[in-house]
Amino acid sequence: MTTRMAPVSMASAPSHIKQEADDMRNLLLSVAFISFGMVGTAVAQERITISSDWGEVTAELEDNDATRALVGMLPLTIEMSDHLRQEKTGNLPSALPDVTRQRDFSAGTLGLWASGDFVIYYRSGRVPSPGIVVLGHVTGDVSIFDRPGPVTVRIQRVN
Q1: Is the separation of the CB atoms in 139 and 59 below 8 Å?
Q2: Structural contact between residues 154 and 51, judged by C-beta atoms closer than 8 angstroms
Q3: How far is CA 157 from CA 41, 60, 138, in A?
């Protein structure tokens, strides 16, 4: 058996209770608005495709000044060569801004070595100081690049 409660009217409540109820309502609305804004930001992650004669992969980009500058250059065609049997590397048409660097990378990491060297890592490892700027991560099968020799890639925004 369910007990029903009678509706409560704030009309006869003291003014300080009315004020506290208004403050609580405003606080809850503010929290809901901020939460909705945070969810909206997370959904808007930039994605790119990297295609070559060997196949195509999609990557999700980090949110930093370097990736914003990279997106501004797209679409791009880059001649890439194999380096240390762990990565393909090629020159960008212009330098990207330097942001926080790290030394460790995993297979699928898109990086920036120096200010204009775009790198696709197809194996995991560690680079010497000062490290790489992480631009993003391949979400597809990055092993398509795990073969010796040069390759031409086309990088485009995903609409």
Answers
A1: yes
A2: yes
A3: 18, 10, 13
In this structure, what is the dihedral angle of CA atoms 21, 25, 28, 34, given to the nearest 10 degrees? -140
Q: Give residue 10's identity as a one-letter amino acid code.
A: M
Backbone angles phi, psi at 119, to 5 degrees: -130, 135
The pLDDT profile of the chain, 159 residues, written as one tens digit per residue, is: 555 555 556 566 677 666 665 665 554 445 444 444 444 334 468 999 999 999 999 999 999 999 999 999 999 999 999 999 999 999 999 999 999 999 999 999 999 999 999 999 999 999 999 999 999 999 999 999 999 999 999 999 998
Q: CA 44 to CA 21: how far, in whole Å?
A: 35
Buried b (16+ CB within 10 A) or exposed e, 139-151: eeebebbbeeeeb
